[in-house]
Amino acid sequence: MQDDLIEQHALALSDLERLAKALRVKDQPAEIFRAVHAVAASAIGARLFTIMSYDAWQHEVERVYTNMPAVYPLGGRKQKRGTAWSKQILQDLRPFRAETAQGIRDAFDDHAVMTAMGLGSILNIPIAYDGVCVGTMNMTHIESWYTRRHEEIGVLIGSFLAPALLNLQSARADGPTSY
């Protein structure tokens, strides 16, 4: 597992500048995904970090970025229909936070994989544009790691993902993609 003992720091203007610059360069969406991961890991903390694109027609999320591809590979899909999690995140656009391993077990089918890696808290941030969820930014860490303040910071950082996720969805609608 990747070492996450990076010293956390408060979100700074320089972090937002880094994200804004990352949106402007070529090699998208990889550049913005990497920049968001770095800023979120530093300002919030995450052992496992993923970004999912949301297909509202299929009620399905697809993994488009991961820091642990051996465990959570790109392209992984999950159906997200009719759960409390999906209503909160995908419809109501409210972050989801579970502070314990039991909270993860209650919300996710793949809880055994996460808890086996020593992960005991999770923070899922809905990424929205024009009132619609286009994806999620997901961070998992040790038990009792995430707080309400992390949710607020996550919404700010995650907002930089909206253009990339919309572009992926547009490309998917136009035909096969490679990202």
UniProtKB/TrEMBL annotation:
Domain of life: Bacteria
InterPro entries: GAF (IPR003018), GAF-like_dom_sf (IPR029016)
SMART domains per the UniProt record, alphabetical: GAF (SM00065)
Domain (GAF) ranges: 28-175
Protein name: GAF domain-containing protein
Organism: Paraburkholderia panacisoli
